[in-house]
TrEMBL record:
It comes from the Eukaryota. This is Defective in cullin neddylation protein. It holds the Pfam family Cullin_binding. It comes from Physcomitrium patens (Spreading-leaved earth moss). Neddylation of cullins play an essential role in the regulation of SCF-type complexes activity. One of its GO terms (cellular component) is plasma membrane. Residues 1-135 form the DCUN1 domain.
Length: 142
């Protein structure tokens, strides 16, 4: 299995980046590549795997997951609210790759007011619980 550090070095070498100055100059083109949903999805998945510190680790603790979601997804719809949910709830202590991946799809597909959320679709229970929590919050604000 190739380590993330090896992948990083291989990627830098393929871009002919061997200094911080060259990396700085390469960043705009890398950012442009992230505009593609396919490339962003790969980066998003990579960001989860990058945080795994043990060989057989399958989950991220919620503190790390929240920091990475905030960093990688920024101000996309649902991110701030989902992070509040994760911090307030006590049932979940970690997030797995399936939940992580589904949350990106959720952000891309579900409207901010959740009106197109269909609980009969195959969302992880974590997201079902988030929607239930968020809808309760919307009702109390009304």
């Amino acid at each position: 299995m190739v380590s993330l550090q090896e992948e990083w070095r291989k990627g830098l070498k393929s871009m002919r980046v061997d200094s911080l100055d060259k990396l700085r100059k390469a960043l705009p083109s890398l950012q442009q590549e992230m505009v593609s949903p396919y490339n962003f999805k790969d980066f998003y998945t990579f960001s989860f795997k990058y945080c795994l510190t043990e060989p057989r680790q399958k989950t991220l603790d919620l503190e790390t997951a929240c920091q990475m979601l905030s960093l990688v997804l920024g101000s996309r719809p649902h991110v701030a609210s989902f992070l509040r949910f994760l911090q307030e709830q006590s049932e979940y202590k970690a997030m797995n790759l399936d939940q992580w991946s589904a949350f990106l799809r959720f952000c891309d597909e579900i409207k901010p007011d959740l009106r197109n959320y269909d609980e009969s679709q195959a969302w992880p229970l974590l997201l079902d619980n988030y929607v239930e929590w968020a809808k309760k919050g919307m009702v109390t604000k009304s």
